[in-house]
């Protein structure tokens, strides 16, 4: 497990909100009367002998800016016990990693999130579910583009989403 020295409070806050949203059964961006934003995630993922290389870029189609959001990455296979996670990301259990997106301007692209992970063992395939669990109070009425399901085969090939 990685120990953070920078941004711990912000990550802990985002994770706490993400856990509260997930645990409470609420949908991120439910109609709360807040500003409207439209979050989406695009990127590329590959799997090679249990090693995952993932790059995901958050985007906000607007109309309002988002001060911060949290994206959840859920794998169909368990992750190895030890992982090196970048600042802004935290592990939530055996198969889940959450990451801060940072501020997203209206109709803007956020900073790319890059992860190199190891799975427990070397499965021949893994499914990845990507979705927003916290949107900083913004309402996202178009939930279809911020939730992705990607099947990744152990070929070393890049799968784009």
Strand content: 35-45%
Choose one word for the global shape.
Answer: elongated
H/E element sequence: HEEEEEEEEEE
Tally of separate helices: 1
Which class of secondary structure composition applies to the elements? mainly beta
Oligomer: single chain
Intertermini distance: 28 Å
Please give the radius of gyration in angstroms.
Answer: 15 Å
Low-confidence stretches: 1-31
User: What's the main sheet like?
Assistant: 5 strands, antiparallel
The mean pLDDT is 85
Number of strands: 10
Helix content: 10-25%
Polypeptide structure, described:
This protein is mainly beta. It is 11% helix and 38% strand. The chain contains 1 helix and 10 strands; from the N terminus they run αββββββββββ. Strands 1, 2, 6, 7 and 10 form a 5-stranded antiparallel β-sheet that branches. It has a 5-stranded antiparallel β-sheet with strand order 4-5-3-8-9. A hairpin with a 4-residue loop joins strand 4 (89-91) and strand 5. The two termini are 28 Å apart.
Question: Short description, anyone?
Answer:
By secondary structure, the protein is mainly beta.
Keywords:
single chain; 161 residues; mainly beta; 1 helix; 10 strands
Q: Any chance you could write out the topology, listing elements then pairs?
A:
Layout (H helix, E strand, L loop, with lengths): L7 H17 L14 E10 L2 E10 L9 E6 L13 E3 L4 E5 L7 E2 L3 E6 L6 E10 L12 E7 L5 E2 L1
């Amino acid at each position: 497990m990685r120990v953070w020295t920078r941004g711990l409070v912000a990550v802990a806050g985002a994770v706490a909100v993400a856990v509260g949203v997930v645990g409470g059964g609420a949908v991120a961006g439910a109609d709360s009367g807040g500003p409207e934003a439209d979050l989406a995630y695009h990127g590329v993922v590959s799997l090679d002998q249990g090693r995952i290389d993932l790059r995901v870029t958050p985007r906000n189609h607007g109309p309002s800016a988002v001060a911060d959001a949290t994206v959840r990455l859920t794998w169909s296979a368990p992750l190895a016990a030890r992982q090196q996670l970048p600042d802004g990301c935290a592990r939530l259990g055996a198969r889940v990693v959450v990451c801060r997106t940072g501020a997203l301007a209206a109709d803007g692209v956020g900073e790319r999130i890059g992860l190199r992970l190891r799975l427990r063992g070397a499965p021949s395939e893994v499914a990845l579910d990507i979705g927003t669990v916290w949107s900083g109070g913004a309402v996202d009425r178009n939930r279809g583009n911020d939730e992705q399901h990607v099947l990744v085969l152990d070929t070393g090939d890049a799968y784009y989403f």
